[in-house]
Design goal:
Radius of gyration: 32 Å
Number of helices: 38
Number of strands: 16
Oligomer: single chain
Structural class: alpha+beta
Largest sheet: 5 strands, mixed
Distance between the termini: 44 Å
Strand content: 5-15%
Helix content: 40-55%
Number of domains: 5
Strand order of the largest sheet: 4-14-6-9-5
Amino acid sequence: MAMPKFYQIFPDVLRLLAQLDEVLAKDFSALLINQLNLTPSELAEQNPGGGNRVRSRVHWAVAYLVQAGAIERPTRGMIRLTGFGQELLNGSIENISKEVLDESAGIKAWAKRTKEKKLNKRAANQSGSSSNSEDDADGSEFDDESINDDDVDGPPALKDPVVRPSLSEIYTVTPQSIETILSWVKSKEIAIPEIQRPFVWERTDVRDLLDSLYSGFPVGYLITWKNPTIRLKSGGLSSGRKILIDGQQRVTALMTSLLGEKVLNDDYEDLRMIISFNPLTEEIEVANAALKNNHLWVYDVADVFTSTKSIYTMVKDYCERNNCTNEQEEQVARAFGRLEKIKYNQIGIIELDQSLEVEWVQEIFKRVNSQGKKLSQADFAMSKIAVNEKFGGNILRKAIDYFCHFSRAPEKLDDIFDRDKEFSGTSYANGMRWLKNFSSDIYDPSYTDMLRVAAMSELGRGKLSDVVALLSGRNFETKEYEEAVEEESFARLAEGVKRFINETQFTKFVQIIRSAGFISSDLLSSQGALNFAYILYLRCKREGLDPADIEQLVRKWFVFSLLTTRYSGSFESQYDQDFRQMLSAGTQQMIKTVIDSRSGDGFWEGLLPQVMDTSAARSPYWNVFRASQIFMKSKGFLSTEISTQDLVDLKGDVHHVYPKGYLKAKGYKPGQYNQIANLVQMQTEINIRIGAKSPNQYFTTLVAQVSGGNQEYGGIRNRERLIENLNEHALPPGLLEDEIPYEEFLILRRKLMAAKIREYFEKL
């Protein structure tokens, strides 16, 4: 069909809602779009102002129907059909039109509010005043989506545009010599927040940087940010050192190659990046043993920049060593001179204003950076932590980095602690030594994960931009920067990190996740869900809940989060909302309320089978289904002894019930034959024997096998056990009678898989 107008999909919206009972707005949008049968090009269309066109129109349709009273929002983010909506469905389709809805009291009131706001805003602008009133919450479940549409009639977008600061107010650009920049770094005027993190450039990258500088090519800008710290007695702001937020790798490369300083590699080992130089050929290369023994090469260019000898003396020494002619000596002198002048090369420094919020710093970074690299909020937070020595941020930063590194490479712990004596004597170090004997990969957190969990647990903040503000001393009530807030925030975050790395709590949490059937990291498709499950666990411990209750709550919430994709995409607001509800209602009550509102028949029998219409290899539904099989101790497909858990552990085959070769021969595409509803976990040897045989062919052989015939596929010799095995894999027993058309099979299996997952969920 052609791209519909938003009002043309009113009937589709209501019909689908009638099937689903109650559903998350974001889930509903995806389901409806899937039913519109649009072409790939239509699905990809963008609005002139940005945002996906069809998604925008779906959101507008829902917003109108909400205002008209046909849809209601029982809780934030949730929508369901009202009695009026059902009446519209029961009547004629013509009644579900924009013209009819425009006459409803709800739409008229919405239009009136919108008109009044526009007039008030216009009046405020003319008088120079501003309104402090907030917009109505109409359509708030779509706050993270664009609802602007180029051809939408009716009330405009409900959110005012963000006020942008003037460019002249947000940054300045000044050129500085490399020599000056390096002196600032050494004197700590510019702080490299990541200095204790591994240097990720290769030696060849360092060589290329020096070659570009030697040849006079530009090497990009550095970006610094004077982030506010504390308020002085005089009332002014004390701006901390300039934080280098872009250019760390380049500056670190210059420090190790020109000044001879050591850097940390991925194994936290100190090393030098030595670059060699041939003055006769003007070649710059990564140092190696051959060059070290070759007198034509200056093995380490750092000698040129750190030596007390003059350039004249170094040229004379080189030429005497190599018996240079007069002409060669002139060439060598010019080359040495060009090399030394690298330190005078200019690099532009973009200095961001201290008043900028972290979101604007991100945006500027993205736009200025030639690679368009995204700077994460976690990077800002870690930078803020690392440069604060007054409240122990430098040590806290190491604790976060080291724990994340050791969780993946525990064998490195002793070696690194031996080198870092300062850190090895801290309570953080003592608190993570247990990792040396811990081998599970279920939860290998990144520093972003640790920050989110620790900050949410102790500071109650899901948005890392808020964490940066708190660590800067921001008092959210007074809008001032206070040292007391800064100190308290660092102390609480440090406590959160200690709770995170606690052996008893961390290992118990991993055990709980495993007990739900998630025995391998291959089954974990949402780090956001895993992180919040740990937040939930830590919260339950703080509340002193019974250990058995904690285990059940964490298991259920983790699986529920995966099935509802609760923490996918932009989930920070969801973190905040859920945590606040835990604090206000109590964790147990919050979990029960949310799950009860989403786990009715409409979800299990309607929504879940529909969202399982996917071929995504990392689909949470496929992973939860396999976890359910492990939890319920199912055998592999057609296996008598080998369990599904064994197959997941040993990377057994994923078999296509309707074999891929069989479907390809019939013209099916990958997105069709790789549907998760066509997959089972199976032993390799059985999979090979089935090959590309049709389902009818190999199931007929199976029926003969369990009736006393030859053993062809696996060891099952009993019909009852075969039917039991089909049930374990949510496969219709009708396959034993006759081949089911493929599309019909997929619909039927999705329902059976959803029922199996429901059974598992209720037993958790």
